[in-house]
Design brief:
Strand order of the largest sheet: 1-8-7-6-5-4-3-2
Shape: globular
Largest sheet: 8 strands, parallel
Number of helices: 8
Structural class: alpha/beta
Strand content: 15-25%
Distance between the termini: 14 Å
Length: 223
């Protein structure tokens, strides 16, 4: 099953509730929330108060992507705010194994993200501990960037590794995802796509439906 995770970073923050509701009612099961600290990445976005506020208006799976240094400090508070899945960066964790354990102990699904230039081999020791690997297909910190082509080979390599080890770990891709390249990402092995501008620019409901219709065709073998 292919999953769409609309990225709130691409939304109009003066109209968050109706935009979130539009994606949910159109069928998006996930909502991707980018938490940025201005240190690990250049930008600052939002944190627990906003997540707790929007939790009241959505029953979607809150997929929290923590682009912060030493994210383990915030895991318990993120779960309390409403996170269902907490994804941390391998590059931001001094003790990645410990941070993954913190996420699991908090009762959330665990994900690990890799920046474009970070090899997937850095996750060899923890792949069996996570529910999802997020491969960044742009350099993190800003929305609206263009997809980095070599990400496709990283997806293929990760999928091959997971299959060889008999793991059902999800592969999420974030950055420059569009209706035009979604098929390539599925064929490479991804099954969760994050889309910000491609969903929230224009009509979020119509854009969500367009993605999900495409996903359904690929699931049916009719791309």
């Amino acid at each position: 099953m292919y999953i769409l995770a609309p990225s709130l970073l691409g939304a109009d923050f003066s109209r968050l509730e109706p935009m979130i509701r539009a994606t949910s009612e159109a069928g998006a099961q996930y909502l991707h929330l980018d938490v940025m600290d201005g240190a690990f990445v250049p930008s600052i976005s939002f944190g627990m108060p906003l997540i707790a506020s929007i939790r009241k208006c959505s029953d979607q799976i809150f997929d929290v992507h923590m682009m912060v240094q030493e994210p383990g400090r915030y895991v318990a508070d993120m779960k309390k705010a409403g996170a269902d899945l907490i994804c941390v960066h391998q590059e931001a964790c001094i003790h990645l194994d410990r941070t993954i354990s913190q996420i699991r102990e908090a009762g959330a699904m665990a994900g690990v993200a890799l920046n474009p230039a970070t090899p997937i081999s850095t996750l060899d020791c923890v792949l069996d501990q996570v529910d999802m690997v997020l491969l960044m297909s742009v350099n993190p910190g800003f929305g609206g960037q263009k997809f980095i082509p070599y990400t496709l080979e990283k997806i293929r390599c990760l999928k091959k590794t997971l299959t060889k080890r008999g793991l059902k770990t999800h592969i999420q891709v974030d950055g420059g995802v569009t209706l035009e390249n979604a098929g390539e990402l599925f064929e490479a092995g991804a099954d969760i796509l994050v889309a910000g501008s491609a969903v929230f620019k224009g009509d979020p409901a119509a854009n969500t439906r367009a993605f999900l219709e495409l996903f359904a065709r690929y699931e049916a073998g009719r791309p």
